C-alpha cells in the first residue's frame, strides 16, 4: 500500500467517525420526526402544553441544531491525524 493510499484511508476514517456527523444526523432525524408529530398534534396535546405547540417548536429547534452540526462538519472537515513518527 502506498503512502498516498494510506493517507486517503486515514482521512476517510477521520471523516466517517466525526462526532459532529453522528450528532447532526441524530438531531436532524429526531427533529423531522418531532416536527411531523407537532404538525398533527390534536387539541388535547396542545391543551396539555398550555396552548403551546411544544412538539412543533422543539422539533424545529432540534432540526435547526442538527443542520447546524452537519453544516459545521461540512464547512470545517476533520483534519487527518498525523501518523506517529517511526524510529529507525
TrEMBL record:
Q: Which domain of life is it from?
A: Bacteria
Tell me where the transmembrane regions lie.
22-42, 54-75
Q: Mind listing the UniProt keywords for this protein, alphabetically?
A: Membrane, Transmembrane, Transmembrane helix
- Give the protein's recorded name: Uncharacterized protein
Q: What organism does the record attribute this protein to?
A: Catenuloplanes indicus
